[in-house]
Amino acid sequence: QVQLVESGGGLVQPGGSLRLSCAASGSIFSIGAMGWYRQAPGKQRELVATITRGGSTNYADSVKGRFTISRTNGKNTIYLQMNSLKPEDTAVYFCYARVVTNDYWGQGTQVTVSS
Fold it and tell me: How confident is the model over 63-77, as pLDDT tens digits?
């Protein structure tokens, strides 16, 4: 079992920055890829960014060049640095961790981009 706890969400003005964190606990030695998804009101959950255990990253086109995902050397904490935020980035952001074929999810953290 893996438990994920996110932090760092909040309200920010357009053009601002936020950094999200996700700390994993439990069977962390078995975690492979980790990443972030987001879900805006009335929309489906969508991929934001992923990072493998080896450090390879993947981003949604809508966030490339603005968001950066990273992972600690201990590999059980990930971050999402979000710059140049736009109102359309407003959503609940969920952290996930993959263990073999199982995905574990955090509780989500709200990000609101508004003036």
Answer: 999 999 999 877 789
